[in-house]
Amino acid sequence: MSRLALRPSTTFGGRTPGFADRPIEADARSRDAVRLLVAAGPFIRHRRFGDLVDELRAGDVLVVNTSATVNGEVDASWRGMPIVLHATEGPFGDWVVELRSAPDAGRSILDAAPGDHVAITEGPGLRLLAPHPHRSSPTGEGNRLWRAEAEGGLRALLDAVGRPIAYGYLAGRWPLAAYQTVFGQVPGSAEMASAGRPFTDALVQALLRRGVLIAPVLLHTGFSSQEAGEGPQPERFEVGPATARTLNLVRRSGGRVVAVGTTATRAVESAVVGGRVVASRGWTDRVVTPAEPPQIVNGLITGWHDAGASHLLLVEAIAGAEKTQRAYDAALAEGYAWHEFGDSCLIL
């Protein structure tokens, strides 16, 4: 897929979104109190996430990602200067890493080279091997992601002294529990599958009472810090037989398959064969775009994505470019908050 094809048509009209710089519970509010923009048919509605139960109907199915977030950030040094290292397990039995500026991981470091050594402050280091999965800066200015070989037990080190991956727009650091969802059961995501974050146990129970089905899938997320025009990296996923049967039945009966996030969408659409979902697992490089649209998912709960992000292409593939633009225009006008602790959108 060309770089150009990975640029969505949705624009921000020169406006800059506001970022949520902390979890909503830091202000003694429930997670489901974040705002929810509903784009259904020609209408835009402004609600709270807890109102989701009124927007869905019996027979709809929510596809949820059961991956739990793990620590993926640690202080390190490279070429004698302090950096922040982001690390996640890669598809080749080694690691995928990103070098970012200290102290707050505010920007990517793009001038590393194969063979460079990265020393980790509190444990064994690693060596950069090659760009992953190819030269990953669409600007052509250096490289962002690397395959790397660890010199010791990096996973154990991250679990012991690492922290959740975070970026410079946050007001301080937040514990790993802030990056988990009620659906997370299987550790493995480098960054939170954040569309599921506003769900609470009480909201899930209310949805089940309404007759909304819950179908679990698994997708361990990679890094979410893509540059404009950069596609998502290969990610590990699994769709089980029970979920495959449920999704096929709901589609045959005319129900809506609403994915909770781009990660759940990617997992489902990676398991489609001949227009049906089949039990599948492995590493996926599927990128959902208007040119290669979803075959199963026809509704989406999502956060708000930066202009130029490839995730916006997935939203456009489900909602259409016109509805996506209307939703983003409304969100910008009403001051919705972006990023992992921010507000939400339901597109039907």
Automatic annotation (TrEMBL):
GO biological process, one term: tRNA queuosine(34) biosynthetic process
InterPro entries per record: QueA, QueA_dom1, QueA_dom2, QueA_sf
TM stretches of this protein: none
Alphabetical list of SUPFAM superfamilies matching this protein: QueA-like
Alphabetized GO MF terms: S-adenosylmethionine:tRNA ribosyltransferase-isomerase activity
Keywords linked to the UniProt accession: Cytoplasm, Queuosine biosynthesis, S-adenosyl-L-methionine, Transferase
A UniProt-annotated Pfam family: Queuosine_synth
Residue segments, region Disordered: 1-21
PANTHER family assigned: S-ADENOSYLMETHIONINE:TRNA RIBOSYLTRANSFERASE-ISOMERASE
Name of the protein this chain belongs to: Queuosine biosynthesis protein
Organism: Enemella evansiae
